[in-house]
Every structure is written in structure tokens, then in C-alpha cells.
Write a structure and sequence with these properties.
Keywords: ATP-binding, Nucleotide-binding. The protein is of the alpha/beta class. Helix content is 32%, strand content 21%. The chain binds adenosine-5'-triphosphate. The site of adenosine-5'-triphosphate has 15 residues, from helix 8.
Amino acid sequence: MAVPKARTGRAAALHRRAAAIVTAAAEVLDEIRPAPADQRRQYELADQLRSAAEVLAPGWAGSSLESLAAETPPGEGPPAFVRIGTGAPLDDARFPAVVPLLGTAHLVVDTDAREPRVAGLLRSVLLRLLAATPAGCLLVRAVDGTGPGEVFAPFGALADAGLLPPAARDLAGLRAVLTEAEQWVAPDAGRHRRRDRTLLVMVAKLPELTGPDDLARLVALAESGRTSGLHLVVAGWPSTARSSLPQATTVTLRNGYALIGDPPGTSFGGLGGGSSGGLNTPVFVAEDPPVELVTTVCRRLAEQVEAGTRLALAGLLPEPETPLWSVSSAAGLSTTVGDAGGRPVPVGFTELTPHWLVSGRSKAGRSAFVTNVLLGLTARYGPEELACHLVDLGPGESFVEFLQTERDRSWIPQVRSAALAADREYVLELFDQLEAEVRRREEAGQRAGGQRFAELREHTALPRIVCVLDNLPLLFGEPGAGPAPDRLGTTVLARLDTLARTGRAYGVHLLLAGEGDLGLGTGSGSRDSMLGQFPVRVALPGGGAVLEPSNDAAAGLPVGSAVVNTAGGLGGPRGATRGHERMVRFPDPFDAVETVTELRRRLWAARPEGSAPPVVFAGDARPSLRNDPRYRAALLGRAAEPAALLGRAVDVARSTVAVPLGPAAGRNLAVLGPGLAAAQLLVTAARATAAHHPPGTARFVIAALTEEARAAAAGLAGGLTGQHTVEIVDLAGLVSAWPGGGPTVLVAFGLDVPSATELPGQWLRSLLREGPPAGTHLLGWWRSVPSFAALLGPEAELGELAAVVAVDMPGAQLTGVLGRPVQWRPRPGRAMLWDGPDRQGTLLVPFAAEDEEKVA
Ligand SMILES: Nc1ncnc2c1ncn2[C@@H]1O[C@H](COP(=O)(O)OP(=O)(O)OP(=O)(O)O)[C@@H](O)[C@H]1O
């Protein structure tokens, strides 16, 4: 064993000695700069070369980077020459060292980019080439086997624009780049090749395990690439390679400077009059450009590319020449949602893909995406084939493209209803309607012997229904109320589940949109199984939560793009082709006003005769009494019986909420609420009641029992004077008004004041019970519940006393009055009415006060 060990030791010693000699020799060689020729000649030559460089490589291609502002425009095409450093034959005789590259040659550096000077050189050359070329005309593929992979990091902004994807770091990545480059140069690649673009492959260091075959592929590319718009810049070409990189200018690094070889097909030798064999002067390679400059230029390029390739909305719509609404929705609806690599991507609402989830963070283009889908659908399917209900639970203007506006009274005829800043109760009512429709269709199918939608449609006119719910998380709880749905939220969720399950077979489809997992992705198993009803998942920027947790396809999406997955968000192996998933780009419809206006005009003009505009519920607006259809009908004498109108229901039909004031016991109105909003409701209720009596036929007795209601009472009296007999009275006057004769309305503000509570209980009860049959009704305001509750006594039924409307009054306080727990959290601009045996309550938006109306 001793002999081999000694041999190994000797061999190691010899190796060390040899290595030391090589190092020493290299240092000596590095000290030997190319010999300067005659000095005067050097100065002249440097001058000439400076002028030549200005012509050959102007602007970004060759000027000093310090002299260039980030906004400096590119040239007309890719620059033919690029600066790679500064030639310095003498310390004070310098000139830009430029070499031909795009269009003619490649560039190879003997050292890889682990050497910082090389990394700087590559970044400088890349910056110059990119900035000097019109945006989008130079595509770059980078390979960086240096380890951390950060050589090209400053150019990250180009990734989204598709100009420079993240650098390949390993052998597989290198090979993918080589394959792409080979396709680029293949003479008959079968693809429509764009000659107006150049592909630049930049290698900062070849990855570990790069073998002779890979090098041979690079050599082959270098041979054929120049004439096909492919160029290579390779740092760290192995000295052991079988051949050098053909058609390349070489850069050989020495300590502190570099030597530049002759470009292919030409010689620097002619310039200096010296022998050929490269530039006869040392060159300081270009320094690393400032990161801010690189970032700014890349951002500018990305923006320009994005703007230049912006898709047109028209691309998602049928050709304008094709007849409108020629498609049947019997088998399903389908529309183009975007473009993937130049091909339109259609997605449908069918029995197999009945419902969609669309997620994206705020400003990620969610409204844009949904608007595109709706425009695409309404352009393809007529009102007999498609009906839409649009709901946005969030604040703000939505769906304006589809609805009447102040300036444009047209609308898109498939839209039946729309709600902006919708209440959850609105959605519940919409679900009621949709469920009823599903039941009708189900029953019709059963009557016809078990038919489903497509068969049913053969003999019945049935549109498919698309219901859009945006800002869905607000459906499950009030904002900021925590992740668990509250009681109403739980109800709504269960109803959503039912609708999703039953609707699919009967042409009722849901498009749910919002942020994150839409409030659906976590929690109980029932939600998980509900998610199974939503095979179509669309992830916009920040919307990856609607994909499977392991599917990161949506990471880093830019605005205007989306991952469209039709397999419930399921991913697949990285890099594998996923037939069920596409990355699409989609246009901004808000940027295509003309196209939208034109389409809207066409659709509106084609609307079936007699079609009505969509009923719009605007959650943050107050309805006006004067515009209320029931109020107007009353003024025209068309009301069946007197009624107090309170506001508009939070429902799809926007029905007027009325308390009929017929001759039955208890047809009175009790407004319960601590503030003036309640008094205001009483005022409009009284005004509306007055409109139901022909002028001059009723007597209004108005009593302001609290100071704070005096103005409201006076305003009401003023408004009614001239219409009817009006008396303003005090408590005694009020008491003396009943019993009385003829149609009389007692309007009492503040019935909770002590003096009023001392009213003989018997008087108030008899008024409430016996007044209506005798034509006398009470419209009263109580600021607190107990004084009203006291009227109930042990045996009285609420129905015999009054309808109750609560304004700003927590439900818990009403438990005693209504005789059961009340789920009602008051909120501004809302009131709840309980009238008659339906103890459920009707949520309403009270009419605006008259002065608010005037302002509006
Ligand atoms: N395809 C697109 N390309 C470029 N910009 C777009 C695109 N789609 C939408 N935008 C723009 O992005 C911005 C946000 O879009 P949009 O209003 O659709 O987002 P959102 O996610 O619905 O926002 P919100 O938070 O208001 O719900 C808008 O200014 C819009 O014009």
C-alpha cells in the first residue's frame, strides 16, 4: 500500500509546482500590454476611432451611459455595432471600443460572469442593445449558471412583457433555450416567423454538466444564426471546447484590461496599420451600468411593449358583419375571454362547466374581465337565449356599460336586473327568484317526462340565466366582522350552495367574483363540496387562491392577464402542457369606449319590442318619493286604497314598501327609532298618505310633542296645506281629534314623551283598534320602544295596533314587541318593516327627505 501512496504524494507535489508556474507566468504575461506604437500616431488614431464610433454606434449603442437620459429614444432598428468598453492605447488617448454584433456576428468572452467585470460587461451590452432597439424588436433569452442567478436580475421588469424571461440556470434550462433558438433559425419551422425581430441568447456562464453536445449545438447556432436574426453572447466559453464559437468576436480578459479579437470577416489590423490578430490596444471592458438606469429603461420597454400589443376588445367579440344573436344557448353559452399566444380562448357556461369563480386583488382588472365576458355573451346570445342579473356587493359604480345612465337612456337588453352596493338581503331575494325559476323549470321537465334544459328548450322559450355576483366575500359577513360568516351569511351560503347544485341542469349559471378565496375556500366541508360546482376558475393578479394551493400558475401575473382553469383550479407538473389551463391576456374594455358604445347601440336597437330597461338597485342612493311609481299613481287617483308609502324594498323588483291604511283594526303606522331619521320617515309616510286622498277630502291633525320634531312637523304641515285640511295641535288637541268623523290622519311626533305616556292608555288603544274602521288612522313616532310596547298589554296582538317600522333601532329591543327574537342590525339608510302575520320583516330604503330630493 505504501508504494501507491508515495506516488500519489509525488504527483500532487508536481501538480502544485506546475500550478505555481502557470500562475507566475500568467502574471508576467498580464504585465505585457500590447506594445504602443508611435505616440502621435496613437493620439490621431484614438481621435479617428472616437469619430468612427459616434457614427457606427450612436446613442444607446455607443455613447457614454452617463451622458444618456433614461428617456433617450432608441434607433430605428437594432444597432449594428455596440460598445463593449473603452480602448486606451495611452492613458489619455481613449476611444469607445465598438464591435459589430446584431446582424453580423456573435460575441464570446473567455471568462464567465462569476468575474464581476464580465457580469458588468454583459449587463452593459444588454442594456445598450435593448435601449437602442425599438421596444419589442429584440427578444432575449438568458442562461446564468453562476449559481445565485442574479446576473440578469436588474432586467426583471422585462419578464412580464415577454422580452426576457427569467434566466435559465441549469442544464435543462440551457437546453430549452437552445431548442427555442434552433426553432428560431430553422428554415421551415412551419411558424410564421417574424423577421422584424431579433433573438439574442446571452450566456453568463454555462451551467454545470454542459457537455460537448450542448457546445456543438451552440456552435451550430452560431454558424447559422446570423442570417436568421439570432445572435449569441457567451461568457465563459470553455478553453477545452473542441472548437471556438464561430463568427464571434472574442474578448479575452487580462488583469485590469481585455483584448479584443478581430470581428468575423474583418480585421482591426487595417485600422492601426499593424498586423491582424485583434485590436492592437488594451480595452477596459464596459462597467456595470447603474441599476436605476437599467430598471427605468426596462420598465419603459415593458410599458411600450404592453401598449403596443394591447389587445382590442373587438377581438373578443363576433365579427361585426356576422348577424347579431345568431347562436343558440341550448347546449350552453360560450364566449372568448382572452388570447393565449395569438389564439382566442373560449370558455363556457354549460352543464359541465356551470359556474365560474373569478378572483383578483383590487385593481387587478376584475371588473374589466367580467365586463368582457358579459359583452361577449350579450353580443352572441339574444334576450331569448340569455338573461343576466348583475350584482356588485361592493361600493362604487359598476356595470355602467350595461345600464341606463343620465346621458344614455339605452341599455343592454339581456340585463334584467342590476344592483350596486347591494345589501345581502337583496341577494337573498334574488336567490329566491332564481330558485323559483329553477323549480319551475324542474317541474316543467318532470311534467315532460324528466327532460333537462336542452330538451325542455325545444318546446319552451327558456333563456339561460347568468348571475354575476362581484365582491362576493361581503355576502358572508359585514366588512371587518371576521372570517366566520354571521347568521345571515350562513343562510346565504347555504342558499348559494343549493342554487349552484340545482341550477346547473336548468340553465342557471353563477359567476362569482371577488378577492382572495371569495370567502369560499376555507372552513367547513360543505363549502369544499360546494366548490366542486365551480369547475371554471379564473385567477387574475393576486387571485391565485381560486386555484389549487399547489398550483402557482397565477404567481406574478401582470394586469391584463389571467390564468383560466377549467378543472377546478387543479394544477399539474411544472412545465407540462396543461390542456385545462391557459394563461390569457385580455383587453381593457374601459379603454374601448367606442367599441362598447357601438355594440350597446346595436344590441339596444335589436331589443325585442316592449322590453323594459333593467331594474337597478343602487344601495347607497335614496329613492325619491316624487319619482315613486306608486306615489305617482296615487296622485293620479289610481290607488286602490290609502296607504302610507315608506320607501323602496331591498329587492330585485324595487317594489314600493307600503302600509295599507284600510278600514281594518290596527291599520296604523308606528315608527320606532331614536333619531330624526325616524321622524323623517314619518313625514314622507304622511305626505304619501295625503296623496292617496283626493284633494280636500282628508283632515290631517299634526302634533309635535317633542321640540326636536317641531321643524319636521311644520314642514309637513306646510306641504299639505292647500291639499287637505291641516291642523297643528298639542297633546290635548290630539286627544280631542279622536273620536272624530271623516277621513282623518293623526300624525304624532314623539309619542314617548312623558305627557303622552300619561295619555289614557285606553284612548290610544281604542284609536289604534277602532280608529281605522271609522276612517281615522294614526301615524306615530316613538323614540323608544317601552312606551310603545306598553300599549300591547298582556293580551293585545300587535296586528290589532299598528304596523311597525324600525329605524336605527337594534332588533334585540324589538323582541318584546314582536314576540320573538329579531335578527336586525340597524344601518344607515335602511329601515325594517313588520306588518301583518308575515313577521319576517321587509328591509327597505326609506325615501329621501324632500330637501335632499330637491338637491338631487
Ligand atoms: N387588460 C387590461 N390591460 C390594461 N389595463 C387594464 C386591463 N384591464 C383593466 N385595466 C385597467 O386596470 C385598472 C383596474 O381595472 P378594474 O377596474 O377592472 O379592476 P378591479 O379589479 O375591478 O378593481 P376594483 O378594485 O375597483 O374592483 C383600470 O384602470 C383598468 O382600466
